[in-house]
Design goal:
- This protein has 161 residues and is of the alpha+beta class.
- It has one domain.
- Helix content is 22%, strand content 48%.
- It has three helices and ten strands.
- Strands 2, 4, 5, 8, 9 and 10 form a six-stranded mixed sheet that branches.
- Strand 4 and strand 5 form a beta hairpin.
- It is globular.
Amino acid sequence: MRIALAVTAAVAAAVVAASFAGISKADTPTTVSIVSCVLQHGGKVTVAAGSTISFRFGWAARTLGLDQEFLNALDLNASIDGTAIADASSYWSAPAPAVINGNNVYLTNWLYPTGITLQSGDSVTLVWNGVLTRPITDGFTHGVFKGDVLGGNDTCTVTAS
């Protein structure tokens, strides 16, 4: 009887293991900061194989009104691997209170889940073109922002290793 139970348990374990064989062991949600990728890493970042990629761009302002002004002034076009993201502006969150570096701010995030899981050697490229149609301020001492939000460096390529 014990042998039969042991064999049954072993067969059941093998069936369960086989049913998961086609699933990546680690489809890890990975959010890539567009600002970091473009402005700090020259438009190229590397992630671990098995990463499911989302892209994020955050904007913080001193007041809700200034955060909303950013959203109202922004003309946004974006694409993934050359395919336009339909209604790219719909991926903005509503401005919400936050604390960043000890400052009370209002924060809005553009978060686009690509649904793409990269395996070793695979890559995905985002072109994120955000242009302010009029000068705005964030209410801090950062001055006035106008034109291309990222200064014309709008491409981020993520590659898995």
